[in-house]
Amino acid sequence: MTTVNSDRTTRRVGVSGWSARTIVGAVVLVFVLFFAIPIVWLLLATTKSAHGLVVDNAFLPGGLDDLRTNWDQLFGFQDGAVTTWLANSALYALGALLVTLVASIPAGYAMALTRFRLRRLLLVLTLIVMLIPNTALVLPIFLELNVVGLIGHPLSVILPMSFFPFGVYLTYIYFSTSIPRDLLAAARVDGCGEAQVFTRIALPLATPIVALVAFFSFVQNWNNFFLPFVMLPSSDGYPVQVGLTSLLASTPAFNPTSAGTQSVQLPTLALATVISVLPVLIVFLFSQRFLVAGMTAGGTKE
Questions:
Q1: Per-domain residue ranges for the chain?
Q2: Which of 84, 81, 78, 42 is nearest to 258 (CA)?
Q3: What 3 state SS string does the chain have?
Q4: Where does it primarily localize (predicted)?
Q5: Is pLDDT at 156 greater than 90 in this prediction?
Q6: In whole angstroms, what is the distance from residue 90 CA to residue 205 CA?
Q7: Which of 97-111, 159-173, 288-302 has the lowest mean pLDDT?
């Protein structure tokens, strides 16, 4: 009798376990398809003509000739404006990234491993500012930069992008939990000043968090739309994310009044979208190892 009950219990647990796994698998499959299908369609759209995109099967690839035509149309738009926009995006993202690293890493180290007046207040202010949406700060920043005459200058984008309190907080968490304090104390006993302790001991051990802050900063800067849209009145200074709006406005499918010599077809717009996200994807692929190390850092306290 006991054996029969045990078999029934095992069977019920097994069935319920399989049912739960089936439901979870189905939900995951739905989400994968929900996100994967548009991406596949977008990639295949770049290889088609405008007519083929509408008439042909949506998930059949086009041809290299159509891809080359779309490429030529994209980079010939407004005498090579797309190339200028990509160069501007690289300038803004990398310039802001450099300033962010120079400011955020020492700031996080100072708040984590040194003692000074108003330290707790600065940490609380950092956490509060992290909760404020970036778009809410664009208008006051615009008014400030307008007073000093920087509107339309690359610095009007680079300087606000460099303000990255999330990077300071990440660095603070890392230095608070992952750097042996005894090691830093030994360096101080040996005669190292605070700057030497940071540059020679702490910074070489902080490679994972530096990579993590750099990645988040670069992605945020590259994808930033609203700030450069407000700060840069001229198309020559646009980054690629803002430049996409010009391409969209020149696409007859979205703006029927734009039909003309500079009109952009849907496959060309799809190609522009793919190219605009390609740098982020490349950076992610080459920095996966450091990103994983940075995200798992601080999981255990020394």
A1: 16-74, 80-296
A2: 78
A3: CHHHHHHHHHHHHHHHHHHHHHHHHHHHHHHHHHHHHHHHHHHHHCCCCHHHHHHCCCCCCCCHHHHHHHHHHHHCCCCCHHHHHHHHHHHHHHHHHHHHHHHHHHHHHHHHHCCCCCHHHHHHHHHHHHHCCHHHHHHHHHHHHHHCCCCCCCHHHHHHHHCCHHHHHHHHHHHHHHCCHHHHHHHHHCCCCHHHHHHHHHHHHCHHHHHHHHHHHHHHHHHCCHHHHHHCCCHHHCCHHHHHHHHHHCCCCCCHHHCCCCCCCHHHHHHHHHHHHHHHHHHHHHCHHHHHHHHHCCCCCC
A4: membrane
A5: yes
A6: 28
A7: 288-302
pLDDT single digits (tens) 226-245? 999 999 988 889 999 999 99
Please name which of 235, 237, 206, 241 lies closest in space to residue 221, comparing C-alpha atoms.
Answer: 241
Instruction: Answer whether CATH 1.10.3720.10 is correct for domain 80-296.
Output: yes
Mean pLDDT of 258-285: 86
Judge whether 244 and 251 are in contact, CB under 8 Å. no
Interior CA angle at 126 toward 98 and 115, to 5°? 90
Query: Token match 């770049």: residue?
Result: 46
Return the pLDDT at 267: 93
Q: What is the pLDDT of residue 230?
A: 94
User: Which of 223, 236, 258 minimizes the C-alpha distance to 78?
Assistant: 236
pLDDT tens digits, residue range 6-20?
555 445 545 455 687
Query: In this predicted structure, what is the pLDDT of residue 13?
Result: 47
Type of residue found at 89 = S
